[in-house]
Amino acid sequence: MAPPQFLNTLSMNEVSLPARMAARSAFDAFISYALYPLLLAATLALFAIAVAHGWNLATVFAWMASARLALLLAVEFLHPARPEWRMTWRSFWRDLKYMAVNGGTSAALKLGLGWLALDLSRWNTGIVTGMPAVVEFLAVLLTFEFLQYWYHRLSHEGRGPVSRWLWKLHVAHHLPDKVYLLMHPVGHPLNFIASLAIVQLPLFTLGARPETLFLFNALMGLQGLVSHFNVDIKAGPLNYLLVGTELHRFHHSANLDEAKNFGVLTPFWDLVFGTFRYSPRQLPSALGVAEPARYPASTAIVEVLMLPFRRIREPG
Questions:
Q1: Residue 34 belongs to what domain range?
Q2: Residue pLDDT, tens place only, 27-42
Q3: How many domains does one find in the chain?
Q4: Does any domain span residue 315?
């Protein structure tokens, strides 16, 4: 006599549940341990293929940036590190406002500078012109990071009037209490403009070849995305070479003892100057600023934009 149908269904569910759990576990492991190295390898492979075939590097750069953003948005939606850090409708509308004010401008400036640098570098002569490709790339990378590191660190830790003003420019980016891909444009337009002028424009004087600038900007684009990625990426030893999710998430910690890692592409200068923070088995307990009562909410965009021209509230 055949067993009742509901027993067959129960038996199938009992068998399929461990299989589904195993598949989910394998997916989780793939996302945490393999996705980032694969994206990094794909970036380097695309660079090699584009150079070998003589493709237009500016066009390849634009298509690559768009494809990576779409992929990472989908992964972040399906596999958040912490559900409470996910984008909400409220935070999305806030992000749209910042994008309208400066996100589009910042992205356009960065893309435009990368595009312009690739185009103009054909005629550039400068400090690194004629160097071997690897030496040239390292010179561009470490020069950029040195300028960026000290601008960024002084914005956080400086004590003089200039540093305090730089913090008022920069703090807008740290007001959100969650970090995910699309919150990256949250910030003050003057901070974007100042950082571009102080940090990126000097790169034009180095005289790097187009291939070097393409690789530099391709890696910058990847690290800029994964550094604000609400996914539990485990990069292991790569954290000592490139600034990704595990390092930059602590930079956004509300605990000032954790809020280090001022590099944006490589942690080299953090390692040199003692501001490197890597805790592979934990996430920050809270994100944002240490004393949120001193600042307007990140959603109060007009008040945030006026911060550089006003006194920050006293504690208490």
A1: 18-309
A2: 889 999 999 999 999 9
A3: 1
A4: no
Domain for residue 195, yes or no?
Answer: yes
Q: How many angstroms separate the CA atoms of 189 and 102, rounded?
A: 5
Q: At 99, list the tokens.
A: 């994008």
Q: Look at residue 192 and give its three-state secondary structure.
A: helix
Residues 6+ apart with CB under 8 A from 196: 109, 110, 113
pTM of the model: 0.84
Helix (H, G, I), strand (E, B), or coil: what is residue 284? Answer: coil
> Distance (Å, rounded) from C-alpha 174 to C-alpha 259?
10
End-to-end Cα spacing for the chain: 78
**3-class DSSP state of 287:** strand
Residue written as token pair 């890597």: 278
pLDDT digits (tens, 9 = 90+) for 186-224: 999 889 888 877 777 677 677 778 888 889 989 998 999
Please name the residue that has the structure tokens 């994008």: 99
